[in-house]
Design a protein that fits this description.
Elements (H helix, E strand, L loop, with lengths): L1 E6 L2 E4 L4 E9 L5 E8 L6 E6 L6 E3 L7 E6 L4 E6 L8 E9 L12 E2 L3 E6 L1
Amino acid sequence: QVQLVESGGGLVQAGGSLRLSCAASGRTFSPYAMGWFRQAPGKERECVAAISWSGGSTYYADSVIGRFTISRDNAKTTVYLRMNMLKPEDTAVYYCALAWGTVKRVGASSYDYWGQGTQVTVSS
């Protein structure tokens, strides 16, 4: 089993920044890709960023390109999401997810474990 714990969410004004962290623990012996998803009230969960095991391949949703950066530290079994120039439409619960394997994934169904989520609220 693997446990994922997110941190770093909160309330920020539009234009501000936050950095989310997701620490993985448990049976993290095999290579794994990671992703960040978000879900706003009444909307479907969407992948905002994903990263391969090596960190050399990343994906970003069009709405966050140029503003969000995903990174990882495998020695610390932690993945990060740096969010700059935040907008009110970024308000959502943000989840990290883990998928066994080396290749990044975008679809939620391809992930094996999920964190509990952290709230990000951007005020206008």
